[in-house]
Amino acid sequence: MNNELSGLGLAMRAGKMVTGDEMVIKAIRSREAKLVVLAGDASSNTQKKFRDKCASYGIPLLVGFDRERLGASIGKPERLVLALTEQGFADMIRRKLGTTSEVEYIE
């Protein structure tokens, strides 16, 4: 696992992350999500759904890497979408991943 994604594993172990479509949507709606990370290989419909939902609720969205690498970074099988629920972790991930070439989109 690369250094950029190591912060995701730390957030998972600290219990400051939710994964999966429904749980992430719920966290966005409740404004519990501080940053949403979406796999770059998600379908265009899924990308649109999360871009629209995050924009509507003012939650930053980061699109990059692939579902296998996101899952491996948190010690789970493939993961399509993750939400960080603590601002400190969200800031750390944005700083680390915002500068890598593997991130396609951040807002």
Automatic annotation (TrEMBL):
The keyword Ribosomal protein applies. Transmembrane segments: none annotated. Keywords: Ribonucleoprotein, Ribosomal protein. Residues 8-89 form the Ribosomal protein eL8/eL30/eS12/Gadd45 domain. InterPro entries: Ribosomal_eL30-like_sf, Ribosomal_eL8/eL30/eS12/Gad45. It comes from the Bacteria. SUPFAM superfamilies: L30e-like. The keyword Protein biosynthesis does not apply. GO terms for cellular component: ribosome. Gene3D superfamilies: 3.30.1330.30. This is Ribosomal protein HS6-type (S12/L30/L7a). It comes from Saccharibacillus sacchari DSM 19268.
